[in-house]
Amino acid sequence: RAAKRQGREWLAYEPVQSVSTAVAVSLLSELRSAVTRSELRLFLQPKLSLDSGQVCTAEALLRWQHPERGLLPPAHFIPFAEQTGFVRRLTQWVFDEACRCWLTLSAQGLRMVSINLSTRDLVDVHLIGRLQASLDRHRVPAGAFCLEITESAIMDDPQRARATLVRLGEMGFRLSIDDFGTGYSSLAYLKHLPVHQLKVDKSFVLKMADDESDAKIVRAIVDLAHNLGLEVVAEGVEGPEALAQLARMGCEKAQGFHIARPMAWEAFGGWIAAWTAEQAVARASALDRA
Ligand code: C2E
Ligand code: MG
Ligand code: MG
Ligand code: MG
């Protein structure tokens, strides 16, 4: 493929086996040096609490500031990193950066940061030790973090995933099942997992304002979560209609472009301050009208 030699766009979409070993090796070394040359960036996207209108939590989303190709989203390198196992190194970087970010932003109201774990992390025997070492090094409590694991990553090896989740829960992490509704997990299995939160997959949320069946699926997931005693977050909230629908359904939190796009974490403190000020103005003018 010509694309191989050009922008290396294949890396997101084709399995490692289909590219020559030489290309894979050079890509891996490029990804390695991304870490050592500080080309990785941690972005944050706020999660809005629908009852209070406050933003106290955010999801950490990885970006690669590539010297030639610009700012790359995870789809361009996470799948490759997962296939090669290098994603474990990325997880370590993300977690350390999230510790620094929480230490800076907790004074501005950020109570918790969510981190995405991959299938590879769940079966990594060193995961627990490395996370604990980071917590100790930065002197940050585990309760400052929520770990998001996709439903399909759990279903890859449910028994092993469950054992890891139990350990992580005992350490004090909050646990969330990401992209819920797309991974074919049996509902019976769900009740055996020590999780606190379900994240409704954005494929349902994106269209819920226009598509009645998507709205019904979202409502069913919200009810299921509540019946199991879990909190619900909806991702992919792109408009005010979906936000209002979710609030009516009793969904606890919303995340999406309608609230804010992911931003460099250094910009997050300013964003929270502006958001809080805006909320205060809206409340004051609502009182005036009353
Ligand atoms: P995810 O964990 O489900 O993250 C949510 C994705 O939805 C993010 O894409 C976010 O930018 C996007 N999103 C949020 N609100 C909206 C919206 O209103 N509309 C639309 N169309 N999209 C929205 P992003 O940042 O490109 O990340 C994609 C996926 O890459 C993540 O999905 C996650 O699975 C993975 N990922 C991101 N960062 C990391 C990481 O540090 N480690 C690992 N293992 N995976 C990561
Ligand atoms: Mg996530
Ligand atoms: Mg998700
Ligand atoms: Mg997703």
UniProtKB/TrEMBL annotation:
All copies of domain EAL, residue ranges: 24-276
Domain of life of the organism encoding this protein: Bacteria
Name of the protein in question: Diguanylate cyclase/phosphodiesterase
Organism of this sequence: Pseudacidovorax intermedius
Source species taxonomy: Bacteria, Pseudomonadati, Pseudomonadota, Betaproteobacteria, Burkholderiales
Residues of the full protein shown: 512 to 801 of 805
